[in-house]
């Protein structure tokens, strides 16, 4: 878990990384700018991991979803 978090945290403009190995996910929060799938795949491949899915979710969408669930 630390390898994935350290690898992703080391990428440009990354603010924080949360890794959930049970769910097989990593959530990356950006300071600014963008982080492309190619960058993520390359960085993780060098550490022996494979990206099987890559989705961009705007923070505003996350906040809206929490409100709908009654968590925000």
Which keywords apply here?
alpha+beta; Alpha-Beta Plaits; 2 strands; about 40% helix; about 20% strand
H/E element order: HEEHH
Q: Quickly give the structural class.
A: alpha+beta
Number of domains: 1
Beta content: 15-25%
Explain what the structure shows.
It is a single chain. The protein has 72 residues and is of the alpha+beta class. The protein has one domain: Alpha-Beta Plaits, CATH 3.30.70.100. Helices cover 39% and strands 18% of the residues.
Summarize the model shown.
By secondary structure, this protein is α+β, with helices and mostly antiparallel strands. Helices cover 39% and strands 18% of the residues. A hairpin with a 4-residue loop joins strand 1 (14-20) and strand 2.
What secondary-structure arrangement, pairings included, does this model have?
Elements: H1 2-9, E1 14-20, E2 25-30, H2 37-45, H3 59-69
């Amino acid at each position: 878990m630390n390898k994935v978090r350290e690898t992703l945290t080391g990428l440009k403009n990354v603010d924080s990384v949360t890794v959930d190995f049970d769910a097989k996910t990593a959530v990356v929060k950006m300071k600014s700018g963008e982080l492309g799938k190619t960058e993520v795949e390359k960085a993780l491949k060098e550490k022996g991991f494979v990206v099987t899915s890559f989705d961009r979710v705007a923070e505003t969408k996350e906040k809206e979803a929490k409100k709908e669930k009654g968590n925000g």
